[in-house]
Specification:
Strand content: under 5%
Shape: globular
Largest sheet: none
Radius of gyration: 10 Å
Order of helices and strands: HH
Number of strands: 0
Structural class: mainly alpha
Length: 47
């Protein structure tokens, strides 16, 4: 499961390191590459 979702896991880990606390909606935004309430998840889907 982790191997299949490696990039999403690393993206969420990076956001947690950067922001310390993130909402569930922001986690979904990061995973799906869309804007969240506090974090723009699109930045984690660009090279």
């Amino acid at each position: 499961m982790l191997e299949d979702n490696r990039l999403q896991v690393l993206a969420v880990a990076h956001a947690l390191e950067s922001f310390k606390t993130i909402t569930g909606e922001d986690v979904q935004a990061i995973i799906h590459g869309r804007p969240g309430p506090f974090i723009d998840g699109r930045r984690y889907h660009t090279p």
